Amino acid sequence: xxxQSSLQGRMIGMNATKLWEGVIRFCWxxxxxxxxxxxxxxxxxxxxxxxxxQRKKAAIEQENQRTEAAILDxxxxxxxxxxxxxxxxxTAHEIGMVKSNEAMFRISKEQPHADNTRR
Length: 119
Known about the structure:
Layout: H1 2-83, H2 85-94
């Protein structure tokens, strides 16, 4: 009988050990899962912020390209104003300026209104 009780004691001790090993494994798994969730919760807003900043950067770069193209166009026009008298005269005529010895005629593309009221 004594032998049986010591055998039962060992089995109970082994079951208790396995139980505690299972509890410890569960705790480790729970810790890893909770850590992964915590990391995700911490970095998700930062990823959104990063994407938004990248979109803003791309928009600013496009605006810079448009501005650089406009600057280049203005520099070319400035060079033409300095070196091409015909360009200066043509530009002046486009904005309505004339020389003192010139007369300007403006031709309208509108059709004159026919007066149908007379009979």
